[in-house]
Amino acid sequence: MMLLKIAFRNLFSRKLRTVIVGSILFSASVLAIIGGALVESIAISMKKSLTESLAGDIQIYSSKATEKFSIIGNQEGNFFDVKELDDFAKIKRVLGEKVPNISAIIPQGVNFAYINPGNILDNKLEKLRELVLRGEKQITKQISEQTTDQITNHIRNIIKDISLTYESSFSMVGALSEDEKEESKRNINIVMKDDFWKPFNHFNDSTNDSKKVLDANLEFLENKIAPLIVDDTQMYFYYIGTIPHQFMNNFPLAELVKGDAIPQGKRGFLFNDYVYETQNKHRVARRLDEIKKKLERDKEKISKSKVIKDLINANIEQVGEIYGQMTQTEVEYLKMDLIRFLSINTNSNTNADTTKDIKKLLEEFFNMNDENFFQRYNYFYTYIAPKIILYRIKIGDTFPMKAFTRSGYSSSVNLKVYGTFRFKNFEHSPIAGNFNIMDLMSFRDLYGYMSSDRKEENKKLQEEMDKFSMQTDGEELFAKKGNININIDVKKNTFTAEVKTVSRKKINQDLLNQTYSDLEMENGVVINAAIILKDKSKTNQTLQEIQKVSADEKLNLKVVDWQEVTGSLGQFVTVIRAILYGLLTVILTIAIFIIMNSMLMSALERTKEIGTMRAIGASKKYILKLIMLETFAMGSIFSILGIGVGMATVFYFKSRGIPAPTDIFLFLFSGPRLYLSLHPIYALVVYFVVVCVSLLSSIYPAHIAVNVSPIRAMQRD
Q1: Which residues lie below 8 Å from residue 540, measured CB to CB, with a gap of 6+?
Q2: Residue 334 to residues 286, 340, 362, 364: CA-CA distances in angstroms?
Q3: pLDDT in tens, 666-697
Q4: What is the pTM of this model?
Q5: CB 26 within 8 A of CB 638
Q6: What is the Cα Rg of the chain in Å?
Q7: How do the domains of the chain map onto residue ranges?
Q8: Class of the CATH domain delimited by 55-109+526-565
Q9: Among 414, 526, 579, 644, which residue's CB has the most CB atoms within a 10 Å radius?
């Protein structure tokens, strides 16, 4: 007890030195607790984000792969060259029988695809072509809402708008040479003349010459004019080939947002809702959504944000994409309503200038500020959005998806969009939000692994074409083929190509109507597979069991955990953990030298005191204990204070959470907030480390102090 009292007296008698050394130990303790809680909480959140959305607890792929596989690709967004697993059905059966901790094995394959839904002119030309081909009395209900004259007038207005803005449009394209620009100007001048449109007024004329002219004019518009509209029509995204209902049932974070799930056993496509809203949506509407998010979630102000002002200016510059999609009647109605709306809501004269054209009115409307944004945002979605193509691909549409096969060739399949889905808690994150879902059969077709039914259909097609090539009379052949409803008289080569097109369309429709069992889908190649475990605490043990089964059964599997298969994302936690521990090491190293210097100075200052204690009988061991006890007391007091402050901070954010500063952090936090947590044993570890560092730093000063001669010490001034 006496030793302890002397130790505390010595600490309080040198307050400044004690506070300086103690503040370092305090800071190290606070940083260790808060940093450790932050790192461990992010690790837990990231594990949840990855294992419950894409990766599963364990991933398997071919041991013949020449590169390490990552489900999210490399830093350039490309996927690694790995070999396929030839017989997934066998792999699933064997592992399911021999590894009891496996709950589910989900087949997967990730690839990159693109689609081109077309711009507004493509859309209108498609309707016009259908009108021309079918005849105005035989057109569908959807198209019959507009007459040929209405559609052609709308197309001419769109082209007129292109002619007024082609200089700025060409400068945006950038890739056009001067010759190409001049050619584009000439093409616009051609279609601006009335003579170009005369054939459309007599499209029911039965003469072959008039039909040829009409068809040539349509092709000219499609190939020469429509591409001049500078639009972000091309969509690029990643997709996961899988068995959709198994994926949705076994990944807890996946949930349906719009539309329906892909029916079990059917081919189909689910957009990730993030892709659907940020790539597929009209870009003026996308910008409005982005501004709304910044104002509501990020609490920004239009008046103070250059980013938001740029978004508003972009909408003002592109109002042509709004009225260009409307018929003349819709434009007139919107014009009158905008005059009323702007007059009332800007406190101006209600007898507003009705001579303003729709372009000026929309520019005024989209010139938004903090006071009127939400009112105009609601007006846009209530009155303007229903009149435009809000989504280029709508739920229920069937569209051709294109991708590159493993051999590098382009391939395409037609797929129906059944709906959209998202990963809960980080639905706005661009990291996981880019992954869409496709059925496994279509994935194999796109990736170059032809499914059995596709092989059978192609075999039938080839047999049919072989028969056609032996015929000399096209009309006689049509008479024998009742299932082909077309009536043309052309040369053999042209005739054969037309039949092939019809047959391919029929094949695509048959494939969309086909229903597959899970076994049929599993019976073929996959790129990789996610394994869901019953007991996740036994991940390493189960991983070893799978490796052993693979070796025994010659399954040729490479088995990795979720962290390895997610590449740089999975290693992110390791990196920030290394940074934290490196920072702590630097702080504690500095603390060692400062404490050592402080204790050494203290020992030199107390030489006379130590000499007197030695002279009256204090042993070296007693002096050593005293100095070590002083250091231990200082380390304990300040580390406990630091741990207390750190734990209080952790408990505060455990209930309130740390808000995600950007969309990327939604993925890292597995939600809009990160809720800190820390195991109590970690606090004991921090205390032990800080005290040990304190004691280690006092060894040398204590050695100097106890080896001073009592006589010489007492003689020092």
Answers
A1: 561
A2: 21, 10, 10, 14
A3: 777 877 888 888 888 888 988 998 888 888 87
A4: 0.73
A5: yes
A6: 37
A7: 2-49+569-715, 55-109+526-565, 119-230, 282-387, 452-517
A8: alpha beta
A9: 526
